[in-house]
Amino acid sequence: MIEPEVLDAGLGDADDDDFDLSEVFDSQLPDHRYLDRELSWLAFNQRVLELAEDPNLPTLERANFLAIFASNLDEFFMVRVAGLKRRIVTGLALPTNVGRSPADVLADISAEAHRLQLRHAEAWTSLVKPAMAAAGIQVVSYDSLDEAEREALYDYFQAQVFPVLMPLAVDPAHPFPYISGLSLNLAIRIRSARTGRQEFARLKVPPMLPRFVELPPVDGAVRYLPLEDLISNHLDDLFPGMEVLDHHAFRLTRNEDVVIEEDETENLIQALEAELLRRRFGPPIRLEITDDMDDVTLDLLIKELDITQQEVYRLPGPLDLRGLFDLSRIDRPDLHYKPHLPTTALAFQPGDNNERPDIFASIRKGDVLVHHPYESFATSVQAFLEQAAKDPHVLAIKQTLYRTSGDSPIVEALIDAAEAGKQVLALVEIKARFDEANNIVWARKLEKAGVHVVYGLVGLKTHCKLALVIREENGVLRSYSHVGTGNYNPKTSRIYEDFGLFTADDQVGRDLTRLFNELSGYAIEKKFKRLLVAPLHLRKGLLRLIDKERRNALAGKPASIRIKVNSMVDEQIIDSLYRASQAGVKVEVCVRGICSLKPGVQGMSENITVRSILGRYLEHSRIFAFHNDGDPVVYIGSADMMHRNLDRRVEALVRVVAPAHVKELNDLFTLSMSDSTSSWHLGPDGEWTRHNVDEEGKPLLDLQDRTMVNVQRRRRARAVR
């Protein structure tokens, strides 16, 4: 283990161990000072739904937001609600909800989720579906088709659908079938023409077939029929000799969270693969049914699935609006956001002769800050690793991989580097939720190519976004580093807003070298120069920076804190921000998702402002900026303010030091928090209010549109020079 060095990453020269947390928490704060985490998440998904309801957005983008809402809610039930149910079973309390039991929280979640799902269904039926129809894209019912169309559909059904259907009867010889999570099903009641006996059958709507069947256009309008509607109108073909009495759609959500006792297993991959198999059979946690389902069928489902009435969601059809992802991709440019082509970051643009830039030479000139998706991932991060793989002077590449795409050029670059004889280390986080199986595949592919693959430290997820290239230059080894806020994923880089910092700074290189060595070894040291690293130091480092602003304010000095994260939940961080507010520090928080902090409470948080921005891109970057008595301290990185990020993950923030980069980040923050920018404002009661028009009803500025313009302006300014 490398000996610890004195910490100076913007925190002063004192050893961090001298910082006493009790100094931050030396007075009383109200007991009920946190907003409920789960209800705050549902409020975030309501903001997504409000985008779908907005008539000023392009129609197919609204359909896409409906699909996102549905997908988000599925994951919420599979993970968060499942976790609450586990707490009920094990008798654990909720530390973030003083005086409330998991059962109480679960009841509140059920009530709010019911309300939102009904609002979601109404948004489709009354808002988005009619808007699509007005634009020439119709989703029709089978009953609306004429006889010729039905005959053509019957031929399609017989040729493309019928062969893959698998009706499963329930009778003394056939037990109730297993219902897979998130599958769309038909519950069918039939009667034998011979015996008169009523039976039940389950039919799964095949997920490999298009959810919406395209029909011949009429009067220029394209038309689609839901697949379950087609199937339900041909049930007689599936049950010859039986009378089909009734049928209803239903959908089950199961507990799909993965829990592995890492310290009790000898082979993490084998244990994870076994757990993934068990996840398919997790207990049910939500049953969605169409609002016309009869009590006989519902009672049977409740009994056989062992589910409670509280977990039943009766909704108008169609169920599972994730299918709208398919319709939202229809090639109608007039119904989508205007295309945006990412520019190449100024530092990485081709030279006068349009030759391919030398990424390493560009980084040697100074730190490079890249803002995705406004600036291209392919011509920055991807080009950095591809050049490293081919460069004969590069000796080693080390990288973390949390989530990546199935055909990732990042993975291919690492394989190319290994096959070229370079030392390559890939730290693959195989426990990345819902990407576990994909990451196992890539880990094995990397191993076969000769890459040194490690899986991090026992009990910790490696969530930091780091890449380190070691290059020999004139007989001296030089480090080129990349620290990002988002995953090394070319696909999500086009829709996730993130920052990445490239630097040839020797101190960052030494920090990353140490961190990678410790990740592939046994422990993480807590002392770094330009990094803040969780789990041993990041929380304490941020608390110290926050408290320094508090003390500066008490001393009459200017003081301010700006934090941009996906989630703000951690109680110690929130309490320290309350203390800062009480001392007069101006605190601005921009949070995309969950926020347990209550802003604007007199005597506690009246100096705290919380905003949320959602749009065509998913706001994903994390920024931490402190006034620091006129010498700004600014970090970017991978950590959200949650227990898991600060205590159970390896996270890394890097200090941004170039004045131009500090200004760029602060300018972005100023624009984000401006009253002239469209956003949601959080009130002390936990209610989010959308502010997207001014007093005259004119649209407020769109942050993401303006950022596109600003990036293009910088490029044009460079071209003029």
TrEMBL record:
Q: Where does ATP bind?
A: 72, 496, 592, 620
Q: Which Pfam families match?
A: PP_kinase (PF02503), PP_kinase_C (PF13090), PP_kinase_C_1 (PF17941), PP_kinase_N (PF13089)
Q: Does the keyword Protease apply?
A: no
The entry marks the following residues as binding Mg(2+), namely 403, 433
Mod. after translation = An intermediate of this reaction is the autophosphorylated ppk in which a phosphate is covalently linked to a histidine residue through a N-P bond.
Residue intervals of the PLD phosphodiesterase domain? 615-645
Q: So what does this thing catalyse?
A: [phosphate](n) + ATP = [phosphate](n+1) + ADP
Q: Which GO terms describe its molecular function?
A: polyphosphate kinase activity
Which prosthetic group or cofactor does it need?
A: Mg(2+)
UniProt keywords, alphabetically? ATP-binding, Kinase, Magnesium, Metal-binding, Nucleotide-binding, Phosphoprotein, Transferase
User: What InterPro entries would the database entry show?
Assistant: PLipase_D/transphosphatidylase, PP_kinase, PP_kinase_C_1, PP_kinase_middle, PP_kinase_middle_dom_sf, PPK_C_dom2, PPK_N_dom, PPK_N_dom_sf
Active-site residues per Swiss-Prot or TrEMBL entry: 463 (phosphohistidine intermediate)
> What Enzyme Commission number(s) appear in the record?
2.7.4.1
Statement: the UniProt record of this protein carries the keyword ATP-binding: yes
What is the protein's known function? Answer: Catalyzes the reversible transfer of the terminal phosphate of ATP to form a long-chain polyphosphate (polyP).
> What's this protein's family per the entry?
Belongs to the polyphosphate kinase 1 (PPK1) family.
Q: What is this protein called?
A: Polyphosphate kinase
